[in-house]
Design goal:
Blueprint (H helix, E strand, L loop, with lengths): L7 E6 L2 E6 L8 H10 L10 H7 L10 E13 H4 L8 E13 L2 E5 L5 H4 L11 H13 L2 E3 L5 H8 L4 H4 L3 E4 H9 L10 H4 L3 E3 L4 E5 L2 E5 L8 E6 L5 E4 L7 H6 L12 H17 L3 E4 L4 H9 L4 E2 L3
Parallel strand pairs: 3-14, 5-6, 6-7, 7-8, 12-13
Antiparallel strand pairs: 1-2, 3-4, 4-5, 9-10, 10-11, 11-12
Helix pairs in contact: 1-2
Length: about 325
């Protein structure tokens, strides 16, 4: 698949500078951009404006994606008392390790890159399964993709790029925020994914406030809390189906719906920021029942959405 050319353009949304990447056509619709500029709302705390996100999903010329697919390349089995404050230590929670793929008529975008088996071994018990065939499928999908989008610097999200045997082939199409790139260089999450600054200079590193239209149908939302560089993603398909990918805001949807923080001693988060994000996500679930909530690790919702046909299998 031919690699697309990328164009970065600065626009203003409600007074906040936002850079746009136009990977599919090289042009944004000026009328749509102006409409978003007029209607964008600045609000206190964490409360992204859904109407603005919906408009931003269409500011890039080109068709919206037709499919949202998922691959589970590994699992981590943890006590509920580590996953949830007040959780039962006798209860085990199966955390999926996933990446997602948006399929377009003439291309694809990968959302997070997973991690290799050596990095997976840093995360816990050697009995936690790693699915090599699925990981290899993810690697092939990244080779074919137009863009590889990284949500934050943690190893299970960026490791598939850093350790990829195809790094030289895929590096020029890795999209991330500037702070994610800086954390990858200065504070690598695991020893196995150390990377020098020179190698990361090939990535497409972006600074933005609040929102960023990454490609048709996908909008990044700045959401510091789980990590300082964390992002969520609003996604809309051609058929009108909407998704909100909360990344690692909660390891499970139960974190979000119950308001219970992660309780693992190695996790250092901004709890007040996460409380505000939980509140926003719960409001969306109540007021927008047709908007599908997904995250990186919730196994029950992942399996249910696969069963309902709302998440497909990775295409290569």
């Amino acid at each position: 698949m031919l690699r697309r050319q990328f164009l970065k353009r600065a626009v203003t949304l409600g007074g906040a500078a936002v850079a746009t990447t136009l990977p599919f056509s090289g042009h944004a619709d000026p009328a749509r951009l102006a409409q978003v500029q007029r209607s964008a709302k600045q609000v206190a705390g964490f409360a992204p404006d859904l109407d603005t996100l919906r408009r931003l999903a269409s500011v890039m010329l080109g068709p919206l994606p037709t499919e949202l697919n998922v691959v589970r390349f590994a699992e981590s089995h943890r006590k509920a008392s580590l996953v949830l404050e007040g959780g039962d230590p006798q209860r085990k929670i199966n955390l999926a390790r996933t990446a997602h793929q948006l399929v377009y008529p003439q291309g694809s975008v990968i959302l997070d890159s997973g991690m290799d088996e050596a990095t997976h071994d840093y995360f816990g018990s050697s009995s936690d399964p790693f699915y090599m065939e699925k990981y290899q499928r993810l690697q092939q999908a990244m080779r074919q993709a137009n863009l590889i989008v990284l949500s934050h610097y943690h190893a299970d999200h960026v490791g598939g790029v850093v350790t990829s045997p195809y790094f030289e082939e895929i590096a020029d199409k890795v999209w991330l925020s500037s702070d994610t790139r800086e954390f990858m260089v200065t504070t690598p999450h695991k020893a196995s994914i150390e990377i020098c600054r020179e190698r990361t200079e090939r990535f497409i590193a972006i600074d933005f406030d609040n929102y960023y239209p990454v490609a048709p149908g996908i909008v990044a939302i700045k959401a510091p809390g789980h990590t300082p560089d964390s992002k969520m993603f609003y996604i809309r398909l051609q058929n009108g189906q909407e998704y909100l990918h909360s990344s690692d805001t909660g390891w499970t949807l139960e974190n979000i719906t119950s308001g219970k923080m992660k309780n693992a001693p190695w996790v250092k988060e901004d709890r007040e920021a996460l409380k505000a994000q939980f509140a926003w996500l719960n409001t969306l679930m109540k007021e927008q029942p047709n908007l599908i909530m997904i995250n990186s690790h919730d196994t029950p919702s992942y399996l249910a959405l696969r069963e309902r046909g709302l998440l497909g299998e990775f295409r290569i």
